Amino acid sequence: MPKATMPPLPLSALFGIVKPSGPTSMSVINDVKLLVSRSKLFVAADKLEKSASKKKVNLRKPGDIKIGQGGTLDPLADGVLVVGIGKGTKKLSQFLECTKEYRTTCLLGVETDTYDSEGSRVRLAPWRHVTREQVENALAKFRGEIQQTPPIFSALKMDGRPLYEYARKGIPLPRPIEARKATVYSLEITEWKDTHNFRWPAQTFSEEDKQAMEKALQGAGETAVLEDKEEIPGDDESPTAFVLKMRVSSGTYVRSIVHDLAHELGSAGHVVTLSRTRQGRFALDATEEGDQQCVPWEVLEKASTDTEVDEDGLRLWEREVLARLEVVESAQSAIDTDPNPDRCHPSPVSPRADRAG
């Protein structure tokens, strides 16, 4: 690990973590809160001592500390999740409007209700005719300022009702779903996959489900016929998949880009992997000046069994976070800016450069 400087504690801070695919962003934040609420990096020593003196301590109940995240990732997605601690939570809004980068894998031949592999199969479409050259040519249409229509199976509301409720119950939409402006600064194909282990979702739309969705869309004057044009892979054949890399503005629907691109290719497609590789200055790979690296999830996952401390009394996960965080306020800066400097404050720890553990 790189060397890190110990600032006066406790800290209010921002740092990025590498969220794994599977858990929700909320569950990840709750796990992080369990750690930081018992860390001297973020909680005053006297409060930690008071907590430790209690006869019974619920290790699964976080302490009283402010924590938040700068933009939710769905369970399927992995990658950069910006975390704010203490007064760092007030800085999180800047990450809602920042530039983001994603890496996603599109699997052709099937469209799903959620536009990703966690949804149900809505319809099948031909895919063998699609070539890499066709994809590269079609991408030009999706670069720059574009208009995107959010999927009907989304939590966006129309007249107070989530869109997915119209689709599932066959309630006609009162009007077309409003398109939204987004900017795609860069979009390229980075990998073509003739063979892979991705498979179409097993769960399928019933005829009743299809009719409900068609009825919902037709209510807004849209034509929707969910007709299968099957092109089933052979025993030793995989439907074509490819990887896209993109840099986009806030509010861009990556799944919609994949969905719409597949239509442009005369096929159907959905997302099978999705990684947020950058959110503002926090990135998986620090390639630009001012980039902040993220804390690997494996480090935080092992923290519950990591009891060894270094000469500063820090555990490995704390040292990893300290090396990557962005201080919003430390104990000393709080004293320096306090309008009532005679008020009692925790004694600051002298800053010093230390060898990482």
Topology of this protein?
Blueprint: E1 4-6, E2 12-19, H1 25-36, H2 45-52, E3 67-69, E4 78-85, E5 100-108, E6 110-112, E7 121-124, H3 132-138, E8 144-148, E9 157-158, E10 161-162, H4 163-169, E11 180-193, H5 207-218, E12 241-248, H6 254-264, E13 269-279, E14 282-283, E15 292-295, H7 297-301, H8 316-324, E16 326-329, H9 331-337, E17 352-354
Number of strands: 17
| Assigned CATH class of the largest domain | Alpha Beta
Query: Overall mean pLDDT score?
Result: 86
Largest sheet: 5 strands, mixed, barrel
Which parts are unreliable, with pLDDT below 50 for 5 consecutive residues or more? Answer: 341-357
- Classification by helices and strands: alpha+beta
Name given to the CATH architecture of the largest domain: 2-Layer Sandwich
Give the topology string: H per helix, E per strand.
Answer: EEHHEEEEEHEEEHEHEHEEEHHEHE
Strand content: 25-35%
Identify the CATH homologous superfamily of the largest domain: Pseudouridine synthase
**Bulk shape:** elongated
Region (Disordered): 332-357
EC number: 5.4.99.25
Organism: Mycena albidolilacea
Protein name: tRNA pseudouridine(55) synthase
Structure description:
It is built from 9 helices and 17 strands. The strands form 4 sheets. It has a 5-stranded mixed beta barrel with strand order 2-4-13-14-15. A two-stranded antiparallel ribbon has the order 1-17. With about 350 residues, the chain is of the alpha+beta class. The model is unreliable at about 340-355 (pLDDT under 50). Helix 4 (about 165-170) packs across helix 5 (about 205-220). It folds into 2 domains: about 5-100 and about 285-355, no CATH class; about 105-280, Pseudouridine synthase, CATH 3.30.2350.10.
